[in-house]
Amino acid sequence: MDIAIFTDTFTPQINGIVTSINIFRKELTDMGHNVYVVAPKVTGYNDKADNIVRYFSISYMFQPQYKIAFPYSLTVPKLSDLKLDIIHAQTPFSMGLLALYLAKKSRVPLVYTHHTFFDGYVHYIPLNRKLLQKLSVLGSRTYCNHCTLVLTPSHPMRDLLMEYGVKEKIVVLPTGIDLESFTNNKLDNNIRQRYGISKSTKLLLYAGRIGEEKNLDFLLKSFRIVANRISDVHLLLVGDGPLKYQLIDLAKELDIASQLSFTGYLPRSEVISCCASADLFVFSSMTETQGLVLLEAMAAGTPVVAVDALGVSALIKNGQGGCLCEPSTEIFAKG
Fold first, then answer.
1. Rounded mean pLDDT for each run of 10 residues along the chain, 335 residues in total
2. How far is 122 from 105, CA to CA, in rounded Å?
3. pLDDT value of position 232
4. What is the largest CA-CA distance in the chain?
5. Which H helix or E strand runs over 28?
6. Edge-to-edge strand order for the sheet containing 149-152?
7. Which of 172, 197, 230 is where one domain is finished?
8. Total domains, the chain
9. Residue 185 burial (CB < 10 Å; 0-12/13-18/19+)?
């Protein structure tokens, strides 16, 4: 089949949606399907892979690393000429609207994966939060009800969409991981040395966006409790985002700055190596629809302590692979 994936975020960006797209794209291609990716253009970046269609885009005013594509252009007829069998949207926004338009025009099934709990991200728009949360529910419901099939990466996210009033069929399809990436010969064993962390130090790891929606102030306050009990412990935060400098100030205020490091964005292979080097993976987000990075940590052999919320709740059962905690710093610190 000829399948087109429409997304507002793709390489060179590093996030869970991009990882999911690349995993499904590879597996579908290996099964013999012809897969296209339609995404915003990123200035200065040239795709190495085939079948990538890029649209002119501008940076989102409040988060420059995110792009807003202008999907209505002279390339639309070219996409129509592809004679697609399935259109798969990863977003309800700019590229998702193009996907919806083409699906209706070509009478092609539209599949939509609902990756994001949008309620948890409204703080990036400087308007009334309650109003934006209502609009996010309305927008999610409206888009889903225009699709042939809706996919969610977890049962809690499916249940939430049903509460929103989605009437179309919803199927739970989690993103898997490529276990070959976790073999010892592909791991970097010098992660601790690179960041000045001794082998005897207990290393706690967080990987993900450094943003308000990840509940990282909670994580730092929990870590302070741990650091007061265990002197030789370090927290490594992999990723970047708008909250970084606020967290640096908070770490100084909590007197844990010397026991905390930020790496910035790292390639996925290095994130996996960080997971393998850590003693514990800690995750405080309450907005995850799946939490793919938790699967990666567990695949690397690292136990997880996470807040029991939304998609994360579906990943860890009966203490297998880790521990789920109430959103209390004392309880989280105890693990």
1. 96 93 96 96 91 87 74 66 94 94 95 96 87 95 98 97 98 93 74 94 97 97 97 97 97 98 93 94 97 94 95 87 94 92
2. 32
3. 97
4. 64
5. helix 16-30
6. 52-55, 34-40, 2-6, 86-89, 110-113, 149-152, 170-172
7. 172
8. 2
9. exposed
d(CA 147, CA 52): 23
Question: Is-contact 188 225, C-beta < 8 A?
Answer: no
pLDDT at 67: 77
List the end-to-end C-alpha distance of the chain, in Å, as a whole number.
Answer: 47
Q: Residue 96 is part of which domain span?
A: 2-172
8 A C-beta contact, residue 215 and residue 126: no
Q: How deeply is 309 buried, as exposed, middle or buried, from its count of CB atoms within 10 A (0-12, 13-18, 19+)?
A: buried
CATH assignment at residue 58: 3.40.50.2000
User: Of 75, 146, 82, whose CA–CA distance to 111 is shortest?
Assistant: 146
Domain-ending residue, one of 143, 172, 201? 172
Beta-bridge partners for 171: 151
Task: Considering only CA atoms, give the Rg of the chain.
Answer: 20
Closest CA to 304 of 292, 322, 290, 316: 322
Chain mean position to CA 217: 19
CB within 8 Å of 208: residues ≥ 6 apart: 16, 214, 238, 239, 283, 285, 293
What is the pTM (predicted TM-score) of this model? 0.92
Strand partners, 204: 235, 280
Can you tell me which residue has the tokens 């870590």? 223
Q: Report the distance separating Cα 71 and Cα 21, nearest Å.
A: 19
For tokens 């609207």, the residue is 97
Which DSSP state fits 50?
S
State whether 239 and 126 are in the same domain. Answer: no
Which pLDDT value is given to residue 47? 94
Check residue 4 and give its pLDDT: 97
* Structural domain contains residue 198: yes
How high is the pLDDT of residue 73? 64
Asked, as a colleague might, if the bond just before 174 is cis with ω within 30 of 0, I would say no
CA 286/CA 217 separation, integer angstroms: 13
Among candidates 12, 143, 136, 115, which has minimal Cα distance to 65?
A: 12
